[in-house]
Structures are given as structure tokens and as C-alpha cells.
Design goal:
Layout (H helix, E strand, L loop, with lengths): L5 E4 L2 E13 L11 E4 L7 E2 L5 E4 L7 E7 L7 E6 L9 E6 L13 E7 L10 E4 L5 E3 L5 E5 L1 H6 L1 E4 L2 E4 L7 E5 L6 E4 L7 E3 L2 E2 L7
Parallel strand pairs: 2-8, 9-17, 9-18
Antiparallel strand pairs: 1-2, 2-5, 3-6, 4-5, 6-7, 9-12, 10-11, 10-15, 13-14, 15-16
Length: about 210
């Protein structure tokens, strides 16, 4: 970052303890809406900069390890990052926190998406389900109501197979396998064809552990 170790606030010289830069995981740029950034262990409000940094000034020397929490609002999932302050550059104590898209994120037209709803046997949405594509870094968490969305932009650039007039995403030369995990339910794995530049909808029903 271009900020100096200290910044001037109200004509006082203050020490920059930590600078947090939230980043849109889809575009790599600044979030659509300015997020709220806090540190769990310290009661301190950051100072925002024009470049998008959230500056925490004059923090206590301890603890060395803190948890940065970013409220993603309606467009992003909330994010956390554990930061070891002692390992940061004293003159540039900055960290980046990537914000994954929520189902309400305004994706560009023709984005390659896999979205749907996670429910239980009573057709109730299940929150906090970890969803991922096996053998990839693509993952997300279901929101209140069970909705989820997976953006496959990076994966599409790696492997697409033309089948007839369709361009299908492949993982290890196979259709993607969607994994859904939650402590209160059985781990569920489903195979799902995903076509490039379209939105594929796949709902997932979770079953309780030990049942049929």
C-alpha cells in the first residue's frame, strides 16, 4: 500500500497498526458496496481511505494474533482472516481479504454459475452448508434459507470440453462433483453437468446421519 507507517488524523500523528483491503473475489477489484471491517479482539473503528483500505490506528501491542472480520452485506459472504501482526512488515502492515459472492451478487451476463438451494427432508432451507467442487478451489457456504451460488470463472479457463453444440466444464476430464457438508447431516456428493456461460441450477437435499 502507499500509506506511510503513520497517518495524520485531526492534526495528530498516529501509528498505523493494520491496514485491511477487502477485495471482490470475482473481479479482483474493490467491492461493489463498502464493507464493514472489525477486529474481534479489539474495540476499534477503522479509518477508510480513497484507495479502499481500512486503517486501524494505535492498536494495543497485544494480542499479536487477531481475527479480521468483514461483513459482506447482501452481495458477499462474510469473511474472516486470522492475522499474525508480528509477521507483517512494520512499514506496510497490510492484508487482503477476498470476499466471495453471495447469491444476490450481480454477476456479469454469461457468467458460468452453479446455483441452487440446500434443503432437509422437510423442504426447509439449511444454512451454513459448505459446498465445493471436488478437486478444485471452488467453494461457498449456503446462506439463510439455504441458497448458494458457485462461480466457475477460473475453472472454465482451465478445462472445457465441446460436446455437440455445448461447451461443458470438466474436472479431471469428468463432470464436476458437488460436495455438500454440514455437521448435522450426511455428507452428500452429486455429479452435475455445467455448461460454460450459463447458469446451472442444482438443488441438494441433505439427509440426517444414520438414516436410510
Amino acid at each position: 500500500m502507499s500509506e506511510r507507517e503513520w497517518v495524520a488524523v485531526d492534526s495528530r500523528e498516529r501509528t498505523l497498526s493494520l491496514a485491511v483491503m477487502p477485495v471482490d473475489a470475482v473481479t479482483g477489484g474493490r467491492p461493489i458496496e463498502p464493507p464493514r471491517v472489525v477486529i474481534e479482539e479489539v474495540d476499534a473503528d477503522p479509518v477508510g481511505t480513497r484507495s479502499g483500505y481500512h486503517l486501524f490506528l494505535d492498536l494495543p501491542a497485544t494480542p499479536d494474533t487477531v481475527t479480521v472480520v468483514v461483513d459482506g452485506g447482501s452481495r458477499y459472504l462474510d469473511a474472516e482472516r486470522v492475522v499474525d501482526r508480528s509477521a507483517l512488515d512494520r512499514l506496510d502492515p497490510s492484508v487482503t481479504v477476498a470476499l466471495d459472492p453471495a447469491p444476490a451478487y450481480p454477476f456479469a451476463p454469461r457468467a458460468t454459475l452453479l446455483r441452487g438451494k440446500v434443503t432437509n427432508r422437510d423442504d426447509e432451507g439449511v444454512e451454513g452448508v459448505a459446498l465445493s467442487l471436488r478437486h478444485t478451489d471452488v467453494s461457498t457456504v449456503s446462506t439463510t434459507g439455504g441458497d448458494y451460488v458457485l462461480w466457475l470463472g477460473d475453472l472454465v479457463r482451465e478445462s472445457v470440453e465441446t460436446v455437440g453444440d455445448r461447451r461443458l466444464v470438466r474436472v479431471n476430464n469428468q463432470p464436476p462433483r458437488l460436495v455438500a457438508e454440514h455437521d448435522d447431516y450426511r455428507r452428500t456428493v452429486v455429479t452435475q453437468e455445467v455448461e460454460e456461460a450459463t447458469t446451472t441450477v442444482r438443488d441438494v437435499e441433505l439427509r440426517p446421519p444414520g438414516g436410510p
